[in-house]
């Protein structure tokens, strides 16, 4: 399977499983699961041939483990990154490391200083356990800045942390006072 096909398929799966399942007539339950047969049929009706083998390979080899198969292999979901309102992952609260990182672009910093980090269209603010990952996330939006997040200060203010099944840390928002630039 070519790297290009794997990447295009990963982007397509991110689009339908995180954001717009209705674009291919797919239904997701509140835990984000969609039937693989319905995904394949919906994708085909939009002129995008998908096979179970291709889907399984993308799930297995994806660099960020973005997708998970159900135990019976019949359903698939995105681990994190959702904006779709039908999805409301029941995430377990977890104790984070003392410091987490968030990569963003310099042009967002005025607003971040004022409001802290907010989820935007997604359900959560995404945080990384290492600065390198945060750097590559931030680079998607322009000149990158890596922010260090004081998770203990956040917890003292009542903020909660969750970890997606691919290891990405999630929280509802990050107060400006808990952020320093690396
Ligand atoms: C910024 C990728 C202005 C925030 C990554 C970010 C991640 C603010 C952008 C996942 C702000 C939202 C998510 C504020 C936050 N004012 N801008 N108050 N608060 N922002 O894409 O974290 O490769 O929704 O810094 O690995 O960049 O797709 O979030 O720049 O895990 O699997 O608003 O997406 O994963 O952007 O990325 P996003 P993100 P995948």
Automatic annotation (TrEMBL):
Domain of life according to the entry: Bacteria
Keywords, sorted A to Z: NAD, Transferase
GO molecular function, one term: transferase activity
EC number: 2.7.1.-
InterPro entries associated with the record: Ptrans_KptA/Tpt1, RNA_2'-PTrans_C, RNA_2'-PTrans_KptA, RNA_2'-PTrans_N
NAD found in the keyword field: yes
Group of enzyme by EC: transferase
UniProt cross-references to NCBIfam families, sorted A to Z: PRK00819.1-4 (NF002014)
Family: Belongs to the KptA/TPT1 family.
Record function comment: Removes the 2'-phosphate from RNA via an intermediate in which the phosphate is ADP-ribosylated by NAD followed by a presumed transesterification to release the RNA and generate ADP-ribose 1''-2''-cyclic phosphate (APPR>P). May function as an ADP-ribosylase.
The name this protein goes by in its record: Probable RNA 2'-phosphotransferase
Organism name: Pseudomonas piscis
Taxonomic classification: Bacteria, Pseudomonadati, Pseudomonadota, Gammaproteobacteria, Pseudomonadales
């Amino acid at each position: 399977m070519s790297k290009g096909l794997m990447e295009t398929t990963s982007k397509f799966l991110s689009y339908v499983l995180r954001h717009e399942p209705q674009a291919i007539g797919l239904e997701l339950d509140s835990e984000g699961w969609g039937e693989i047969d319905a995904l394949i049929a919906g994708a085909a009706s939009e002129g995008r041939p998908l096979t179970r083998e291709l889907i399984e390979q993308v799930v297995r080899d994806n660099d960020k483990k973005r997708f998970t198969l159900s135990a019976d292999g019949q359903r698939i979901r995105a681990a994190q990154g959702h904006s779709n309102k039908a999805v409301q992952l029941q995430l377990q609260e977890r104790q984070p490391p003392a410091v987490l990182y968030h990569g963003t672009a310099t042009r967002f910093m005025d607003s971040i200083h004022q409001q802290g980090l907010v989820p935007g269209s997604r359900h959560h603010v995404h945080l990384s356990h290492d600065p390198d990952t945060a750097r590559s996330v931030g680079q998607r939006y322009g000149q990158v800045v890596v922010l260090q997040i004081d998770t203990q200060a956040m917890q003292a203010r009542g903020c909660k942390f969750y970890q997606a099944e691919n290891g990405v840390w999630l929280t509802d928002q990050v107060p400006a006072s808990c952020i320093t630039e690396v």
